Fold each of these.
Amino acid sequence: MIFKEYTILAPEGIHARPATALVRLVKKFKSGISLKKGEKTIQLNSLLNILALSTKGGDLVSVVIDGEDEAEAASAIDVFFKDLTA
Amino acid sequence: MTTTKEPSRIAGIGVSPGIAIGPALVVRREVVAVTGITLANAAEVAAEIGRFDEAVSRSVAEVDGLIAGLTEAGNDEGLDILETQTEFLTDPQLRADVVQQIEEQFRTAHDALVGVTDALVQLFLNMDDAYMRARHADVRDAGDRILRHLGGRARQTRTYPEGCIIVADDLSPSDTIALDLTQVAGFATQMGGPTSHAAIVAKARGIPAVVGCVALLDGIKEGERLVLDGQAGELVLRPDDATTDIYREKQQHFAEQSAWLKSLRDVSAVTKDGCAVQLLANISEPADLDQVFENGGEGVGLLRTELLFLGRDSLPDEEEQFGFYQKIALKAGKRPVTIRTIDIGGDKEAPYLGLAREENPFLGYRAIRICLDRTDIFKTQLRAVLRASAFGNFNIMFPMIGSVQEVRAAKAVLQEVRKELAEEGVPFGAEMQTGIMIEIPAAAVIADLLAKEVDFFSIGTNDLIQYTLAVDRMNDQVAALYDGFHPAVLRLIARVIEEAHRAGIHVGMCGELAGDPHATRLLLGMGLRSFSMSAVSIPRIKQQVRETTLTDAQCIFEAAKGLDSADEIRAVCQSVN
């Protein structure tokens, strides 16, 4: 199991377009991937759930990746959050 | 039955500027009702789930077909909307909710989907963020598409007569893509806000649009003549000839203006002989940045921070300030942003500071003078700025500096805050440069001494003029004496620029003179290469820069040097080379 923390760098949070990209990225892996903001935890394979979380720029989120390909998934997720800017 | 009706107006929110004149084409969304049918047994439940999955597959195939069509046409905004819709259609949460309603409440796939979609639409509509609220339309759109396939109905295609104005209760993302934008002159919707797809697409394509027009559909009939003003956010129904003529003229003016702006936005501010000039904007809050980018600003030369402190009952704490600066840092990205620390005094409304009423607030207890006295306030602001600087490209500057000692004292506090943050392990931008405003004549006179203390100067002309000439421009009886072209003011400015160059530090200007097109060549001639102004002034100044040469600018400066009145200097500055 891999645990990662990120600050959302996109000023307006995770909008529909990057959220779509994130869901598609997550679906490529067999690992279960979830995201936690505050008290809420969601599975990252659902666009509805990502948007419903309504993240804002500056929010701190944590991602938990668990499964056989977790190392590859974690590095892909890492790239996604680091590139997620304006 | 024909009746002659009077012209009338409907107000909304203008989301894409421009004027459209044409006949109305009315578009209404079909209302979907729940059937109330209850399933009889487990076999029917399984069959309904199967029907739902089947309808989703057909919906996805339909969207795939649309994507293929758009890819060929090179329509990128449309593609994004559809890629997102595919994810909504196949969302595991959506399916789980629908299946649950079918299995546990014995509802049909149709009813379950209507229920789930309605709940999701409500969830999004209740969000505190305007962008997320607008996403309810995407959910509704995806739901409607699956519903149509559940009912076995194919998508109907509309035809749009050329030059029509679409008038709709709401335009779904799919509607927006289906609109043949080469035919449509503009559109107005009853629902929707500035972040709806319709608004975004309209803006991207330069089609005038107004949203949020309450009771729009009650007043308009198909084919009726309309004027739509996307700037004012207004519709005129049944305009008479005189009104139409006025709007035709506006339409013409807008077209010329936007062509001019467009021609300048993406070109660089370089003189004819190749000297690059930095054009920045003065702003007060994060939202102002949009206008900066639209006008081609390279960054922010002055972020006023007073807005954080005014019109409230208590000081903003570090977290609130951090949030404000961080928003700006994230939005500006790599572009430079120069933050001015609090410039507050007895003339501004901040009762919680307990500032006494002063006879002469502009010569009183204000700005850095308060900060060096009330270091608690100052340190909180500096901590917030430093922390936010980790997310962007910040510089910081102190206003109302009159002596070397004040700069040293302010820098000492900044250093203290840096040390504290480092000890706490809190990240901050190590590269942040420190500068001062040159707005008190004393500072201009000792520019050589001050230059040894800082990384940059920013010349604040508004205060520099009023202090140098001892003129309060709010006082009508002396306002005419307030003049940036007064030789005394210009000598001070020239001196500051020269001393900055001698010391090898950066110098910019952030007062109104920087945005005055008549002063551009003169300031270039003095050696100024960085101008910060209100965002809307940027295109005009850029045009000035691009039409001149450095040689010409230096000639203007030389000619102005020998003159003894502001009027003569202004005349030289306005002369055509």
Amino acid sequence: MSNRDGDRDIPRSISVALFFLLFSLALHASEYLISYQYTVKDAILYNESLQIAKSMKKCKGIAYNPIIFKTQDSKNLEKIINTDRERFIEYIHKLGLYLKHSETTSNAVNSSMTFLTLKTTCFKVDFNDTFVRISPLK
Amino acid sequence: MKNLSVLLVLLGVTSLFAATQNTVIVPTDSLQDKTQTETITVDYPAYKKQNNMVLKANKKILISVLGQGVAPVNTSSPAQAYALAKRAAVADAYRLIAEKVKGVRVDGQDLVKNMMVKRSTVRTSVAAMVRHANIVETTFKDGLCQIEMEIEISHDQFQ
């Protein structure tokens, strides 16, 4: 498409600018693998672990149910989550945890073990200047 | 009289056929004057299953449990004790929900030697996926954390 002078630069420049804008936004979106497990033994918390790692390959799926954290221009997800860890763990609980419980009573002596696990899940993370949006992929 | 006996034989044959096809013959008012019969085909196992089900279609069940957790002895602050006890209580509440919804596997073993019980063991276990459970109330007193948790279960979730 040309303008009156015969130049084709105006629409092309807009498309190029849009391409670079979208590409730069895409650069800030990344995917992380997060897993969480905690163990309760005899009604006492025994072990808890939250693992966060950047995904080395592209994840498939649609993002749903996002959570937003405020940041100070930080790109370290582990650090961001640890600033409000309780809220993130509550959010993980809402997503759903796999429960495994076993209890043994031997000669009237009882012992129990409960495992709650979030299996390794891919999360899409969008970093912005003041906040970060984390959403699991399904 | 002859007509009546023919009708009865026909009825017998129809009912025999219906029984093999899992159908139920519903007697109607018109059946009483022996002029016609109405047969409604019912999927009998499904009908029976529907009637015995706890969770009926278009109805929701609210399950409420009380989970308990204890704080460890060696905590550095009361806040830490609370946080740890709460985690344990949440796990207990989840376990109770799973037990109510999915059921518990129970294994028992008794060891008898020289006519005496040496060891009696009962093992219970449950495994489930729990999501959308809500904490209603939390209390923490004397190192014991109690959590009231609710979950709403509908028929559609199990389709």
